[in-house]
Amino acid sequence: MRIAVIDDERPARGELIWQLRELLGDVDFAEGDSGAAALGLAGEGKYDLFFLDINLGDISGTDLVHAIRAMQPEAGIIFVTAYSEYAVTAYELGVDDYVLKPYEKERIRKVLSRCMPSGAAGRGEDRGEKSHPKKIAINSDGKTVFENIEDLVFIETCRRGCLIHTREHEYYDGKGIGDFEKRLPDMPFFRCHKSYLINLEKVREVFPWGNNSFGLKMEGYEKTVIPVGREKTKTLKSLLGW
User: Fold this and answer.
1) What are the pLDDT digits (tens) for 81-102?
2) pLDDT tens, position by position, 115-128
3) What's the pLDDT at 47?
4) From CA 154, how far away is CA 186, in angstroms rounded?
5) Which residues, including other chains, have CB under 8 Å from residue 34's CB and lie 6 or more apart?
6) Tens digit of each residue's pLDDT (9 = 90 or more) over 137-178
7) Distance (Å, rounded) from C-alpha 94 to C-alpha 157?
8) pTM given for the model
9) Average of pLDDT values for 200-215?
10) Does 51 map to a domain?
11) Which structural domain range is residue 216 located in?
12) Is residue 128 part of a domain?
């Protein structure tokens, strides 16, 4: 397996490669410190994954995507950035995923589980197909229920666990909201508040609410107001095109 890590900051490259080695073991890494270097690597041999910093000195990572795709159509491309608002850019460009700086091992593990080639981790032949399951297990009332992920509307913290709201049912699960955030795909799920995880495809309304903040309502739960954290507003606006 070959992985290219492109970042104009050497310490950042080294940290990411170290964490990838911890998770993957013996892997062949190539490093590049510029957009030109990325194009050179893409043209010299086959790679399975490109970890591509967005803010390079010469060519933006967003401008490199199509060129790398043309030269390496089977390779996965993962944006590396310090800014969460680039999540929507990654989604629009069809990039496989993104990793935020500073790096978190669990986040990298999650990205790898989705984006590894099929021969290594069951990645589908269709580039749009992600490796996350279509159902999620919910432990409620002494039994395990399997709900379609697309039917989840929102999840909120409740006591020491969570209330999971679906199109037709509500469940209490003793696991924390962070656990569900890790198990669900970043798109279309978004942590709009420390206590709420929402399905962006189920948002019905967004409106001013409270002191210089916003609230939203979800399909089927129009009587419930979900707060939006102030630090989440900009990203939510980008993701919803609002």
Assistant:
1) 887 777 777 767 878 888 888 8
2) 876 544 433 334 34
3) 94
4) 13
5) 6, 8, 56, 57, 58, 59
6) 899 999 999 999 999 999 999 999 999 999 999 999 999 998
7) 32
8) 0.52
9) 91
10) yes
11) 135-240
12) no
Per DSSP, the residues of 72-125 read: -TTSEEEEEES-TTHHHHHHHHT-SEEEESSP-HHHHHHHHHHHS-HHHH---S
SS (H, E, C) 47-62: CCEEEEECCCCCCCHH
Mean pLDDT along residues 229-242: 84
Cβ atoms of residues 177 and 162 within 8 Å = yes
Domain membership flag for residue 129: no
In the block, tokens 């929402």 appear at 198
Rounded Cα–Cα distance for residues 7 and 5 (Å): 7
Q: Are residues 6 and 117 in the same domain?
A: yes
Structure tokens at 64: 């490199």
Show contacts of 132-138: CB within 8 Å, 24+ apart. Answer: 132/184, 132/185, 136/180, 136/183, 136/184, 138/164, 138/171, 138/173
Task: Give the end of a domain, one of 90, 121, 152.
Answer: 121
Q: Looking at the structure, do residues 100 and 185 belong to the same domain, yes or no?
A: no
| Statement to judge: residues 161 and 229 lie in one domain | yes
